[in-house]
């Protein structure tokens, strides 16, 4: 995933499978009023970021910290040869 190629899950239409999803899809649908009446994950995130940013910020911070911790663990547990291969592959791409 990159800025040019966003996460395809953002464009998934959210089904009203339970009470919370029904409420959230209806709420976002009323706010955004999509032409096809389908609410996507991206639309829900946009509304949450505007109306409840502290919730998304907490999730993003937790995700960042866990990713950073995993990276540190991976670095500590790679042997030097394997680490060099990983770096070379990243540089090529």
What is the share of helical residues? Answer: 55-70%
Low-confidence stretches: none
* Largest sheet, strands/sense/barrel: none
| Percent range for β-strand residues | under 5%
Rg from alpha-carbon coordinates: 19 Å
Indicate the mean pLDDT.
89
Number of domains: 2
Shape assignment? elongated
Could you say which structural class the secondary elements and strand pairing correspond to? mainly alpha
Number of helices: 4
Order of helices and strands: HHHH
CA-CA gap between termini: 13 Å
What labels describe this entry?
single chain, 93 residues, 4 helices, 68% helix
Q: How would you sum up this structure, described in words?
A:
The protein is mainly α and 93 residues long. The chain has two domains: 1-51, no CATH class; 53-93. It has helices at 19-32, 41-51, 53-77, 80-92. Helix 2 packs across helix 3 (53-77). It is elongated, with a radius of gyration of 19 Å. The model has no long low-confidence stretch (mean pLDDT 89).
SSE blueprint:
Elements: H1 19-32, H2 41-51, H3 53-77, H4 80-92
Helix pairs in contact: 2-3
Short synopsis of the structure:
This protein has helices at 19-32, 41-51, 53-77, 80-92. It is mainly α and 93 residues long.
């Amino acid at each position: 995933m990159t800025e040019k190629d966003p996460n395809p899950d953002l464009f998934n239409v959210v089904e009203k499978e339970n009470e919370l999803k029904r409420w959230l899809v209806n709420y976002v649908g009323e706010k955004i009023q999509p032409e096809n009446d389908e609410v996507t994950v991206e639309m829900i995130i946009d509304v949450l970021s505007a109306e409840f940013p502290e919730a998304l910020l907490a999730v993003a911070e937790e995700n960042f910290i866990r990713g950073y911790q995993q990276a540190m663990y991976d670095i500590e547990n790679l042997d030097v040869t394997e680490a060099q291969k990983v770096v070379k592959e990243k540089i090529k791409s």
